[in-house]
Design a protein that fits this description.
The chain has 15 helices and 13 strands. It has 434 residues and is α/β, with parallel strands linked by helices. It folds into two domains: 219 residues, Type I PLP-dependent aspartate aminotransferase-like (Major domain) (Aspartate Aminotransferase, domain 2), CATH 3.40.640; 94 residues, Aspartate Aminotransferase, domain 1 (Alpha-Beta Complex). It has a seven-stranded mixed β-sheet with strand order 2-8-7-6-5-3-4, sandwiched between helices. It has a four-stranded antiparallel β-sheet with strand order 9-10-13-12. It starts with a helix and ends with a helix.
Length: 434
């Protein structure tokens, strides 16, 4: 019988009777909390009802909810319930619930991703996932990682740290010159031309947070593999995850890294890494897992090997109430429907892009086509810096954001926490900047 983490953390493993001590915990399992579930009376088929599940201030149009998510009602309630249980009896609640709730989160994530639970590792953010992935890939000095000029700081810095450590070469390719007119042929052609015989990894971002361009990942992966057979295609998916219905296997990538507190609107401080089954062996774990099988082997007990997802999930104590409420976030999303969510975000983004494109003095940076864009919409306002535009919009009751790049743009986006009134309010406020 393998040792479980809760036995170790509960102190039952101090002697050779550790495994038998599991029976002493049975009494804790009789009163386990259920997933919070959606509130009674809400209608997932009605966008007004969906929006009502968020506690956003209604006197402000929040067009940056994808940056750092507000929690919908079932997630708020789940966090509160788990927090209350941990505050009443932290050790007892953890011992009684951790295994079941961890399994619930893994199962919900696997269903959402269309994969097996053992292929998913859990992290606190996209940045943590990128650091674990790019720091752990089994590469040798002289091997090349090919990334792009359009990727965010977290990817570039994770790769810089890796190159500094062991001599891995990192190169950047420019996939497009003008994001508004980017095409599938342009981006795939440039990536294919840049890949070579030394390329072992291609590091891409699904939706560029600096321009709103959505990359055709499947075509790019195929182009890279034609030039460099066996290359691993790794994707920062944070601005596509929860906004697009496409799953990792459909993207054709080997690894997908994302936070869950952006377009999914999940608990803040949660994220994951998905890896294809044949790709995980190419990554060495960086932080010890607290999976019970690993701890049991360390203590000398017979235990099966830890599957890759669990092996790459950092151990230690977490904000458990947030990690466990991730299952409720997936359930909320599923109740509405993946395709409906993606369609709603495309609809609102289209309304936003059409409106911005019609304002004299505003230059739309993001492609109009849904093929090459998702929910992020970037633009430049004549006579105003992005920072000044955000400040003036806030004063007019609209929350927007600045792209953290050089050059920087005004950035807006509508999630399922928004509606057409929010988009129209943003458009009126942008007109007022001119």
């Amino acid at each position: 019988m393998p040792l479980t983490r809760r036995q170790v953390l509960g102190g039952a493993a101090a002697t050779g009777a550790a495994v038998a001590g599991a029976a002493g915990l049975a009494g804790c399992d009789g009163d386990l909390p259920k997933l919070a579930g959606p509130p009674a009376g809400w209608d997932p088929g009605d966008w007004g009802s969906v929006r009502a599940q968020f506690g956003l201030a209604r006197d402000v149009a929040h067009l940056a909810t994808y940056v750092f998510a507000p929690h919908p009602a079932p997630v708020r309630r789940a966090i509160a319930e788990h927090r209350a249980g941990l505050d009443r009896d932290p050790i007892g609640y953890l011992r009684a619930n951790e295994e079941r709730l961890d399994a619930a989160v893994a199962g919900a994530a696997a269903e959402h991703l269309g994969t097996a639970a053992d292929q998913v590792a859990f992290t606190d953010s996209t940045t943590m996932g990128l650091g674990l992935l790019y720091g752990g890939l089994r590469l040798r000095p002289g091997d090349e990682v090919l990334t792009t000029e359009h990727d965010f700081y977290a990817t570039h810095e994770a790769l810089r740290l890796r190159a500094e450590r062991d001599g891995v070469t990192v190169r950047r390719v420019r996939l497009y010159d003008d994001p508004a007119t980017a095409s599938v042929d342009e981006v795939t052609g440039r990536l294919a031309a840049a890949a070579g015989e030394r390329t072992r990894v291609v590091a891409l971002t699904w939706v560029h947070s600096g321009t709103g361009v959505k990359l055709p990942i499947r075509q790019l992966a195929a182009a890279a593999r034609d030039r460099a057979p066996g290359v691993r295609v790794c994707v920062d998916a944070v601005h596509g995850f929860g906004a697009e219905a496409t799953r990792p296997a459909e993207l054709g990538c080997d690894f997908l890294v994302t936070g869950c507190h952006k377009w999914l609107l999940g608990p803040r401080g949660t994220g994951l890494v998905w890896g294809a089954r044949d790709a995980w062996p190419d990554v060495a774990a960086t932080i010890p897992t607290f999976d019970g099988r690993s701890i049991g082997r360390w203590l000398g007990y017979a235990a099966p090997r830890v599957p890759p997802g669990a092996a790459h999930t950092p151990g230690g104590y977490h904000a458990f109430e947030h990690r466990w409420a991730l299952a409720d976030a997936f359930a909320f999303h599923t109740a509405i429907g993946r395709d409906r969510v993606a369609g709603r975000i495309r609809e609102l983004a289209g309304r936003l892009k059409d409106g911005l494109a019609g304002i004299p003095g505003v230059r739309l940076v993001t492609p109009r086509s849904a093929e090459l864009s998702a929910g992020v919409v970037c633009c430049a306002v004549s006579g105003a810096t992005a920072e000044a535009a955000v400040d003036r919009l806030r004063a007019a009751g609209v929350v927007a954001s600045v792209t953290p790049y050089n050059p920087s743009y005004l950035r807006l986006g509508a999630t399922i926490a928004n509606d057409e009134d929010d988009v129209d309010a943003a458009l009126r406020a942008v007109r007022g900047l001119l």
